[in-house]
Amino acid sequence: MDPVQNPYAPGAGRRPLELAGRHAELDRFEILRQRVQTGAADRGIVLTGLRGVGKTVLLNEFRVLAEQHGWIVAKVEAGGNRPFRASLAQSLNQALRSATGRHGLTDRLRAALSAFKAFTLKAAPDGSLALGIDVEPARGRADTGDLEIDLTELVLELAETAGDLGVGVLVLIDEMQDLSASELAAICSASHESGQRDARFVVIGAGLPSLPAALRDAKSYSERLYEYRQVGPLKGDDAEIALVRPAAARNVVWSDAAKEVILGVASGYPYFLQVYGKTTWDYAKTSPIDAEDAGVGAEAGRDELDIGFFGSRWDDSTPAQQSYLRAVAEGGDEPSATADVAARMNRKPSELSVARDELIKKGLLYAPERGAIAFTVPGMASFIERKGN
Ligand SMILES: Nc1ncnc2c1ncn2[C@@H]1O[C@H](COP(=O)(O)OP(=O)(O)OP(=O)(O)O)[C@@H](O)[C@H]1O
Ligand SMILES: [Mg+2]
User: Is the Cβ–Cβ distance between 200 and 39 less than 8 Å?
Assistant: First the structure.
């Protein structure tokens, strides 16, 4: 089939042509939006899931929906050693400038902008994060240098402005597990304060399954502060919809046998469905796509995953980390006890803690509970097994 017309969207955060099986999340967001916009408080949401399940796509979707209703929306991707204050400031700058464009510089908006400017000056004293914000920085608002205090003050200021404008403030945080404990604590604190005042401020975070524990370590009340939702692989019909509908939009049909092949190898993981959908499309000559096309597509897709999705992570690891990953892989995709992993290597767990911690930091492994370890990357165990030694 014409590769130019290929309707599949393998990638990171790329919107699929068919966003399958996420009605519950989208409905939840819509209720939250309406509640907040009518002045009722609601909890924020924390989405957790393995690599490639579609967390970023959901955050992007929430962003679009909120922006359609005129909300002030900032999206931050944590990690990369950039402090949260700077990333948030950069994203809010745009959101506030477009709010000013839409609503004009009301007194209320001016007050929010000057608190925002004070907030940014603590991250970039040269004013580079407040470019285009032509107001004087506020004194004594959001400018102590302590993120927990400053963020709360800024958020309350912004939320009040949002109330004036009849909208809300939404802060989306991707890869949230990469924030430091003090940054997580500051965010919890801001959510906590704003929640108690019915302020129009919502945080939606997304991250690896380790995120709830990281939040709990930062603030013990965080478990009540957010609604936690696991984003998992797509179930039967939804996986099929994700595979079939993009092709149907181009008048191309999947035969039952072809569907069976790809649904079998993709195990419902959205990223895998996009990769296999794409490789099969590129190989198939005519509609309907048949089992032979799917067989070749499955092999091509697996090669692509082995090089990119799995291989790049493997090649990025040191020999010591690779030995550890091999031992975890012996337990398959299920979590292993760290003591068992050590036993598989004839070592003591304490001798392996450096490699393990590095792999957690890289986001390749996570601790589903104390004393256990698992892959964040679905299918990594079989990849390592396929690789052999
Ligand atoms: N509901 C869905 N239906 C079909 N395809 C989807 C769906 N959600 C995501 N995808 C596709 O899956 C891939 C991965 O999505 P996304 O980048 O959002 O995953 P992620 O959970 O953020 O992964 P990571 O943890 O690596 O950041 C993308 O190619 C996207 O188009
Ligand atoms: Mg993502």
Answer: yes
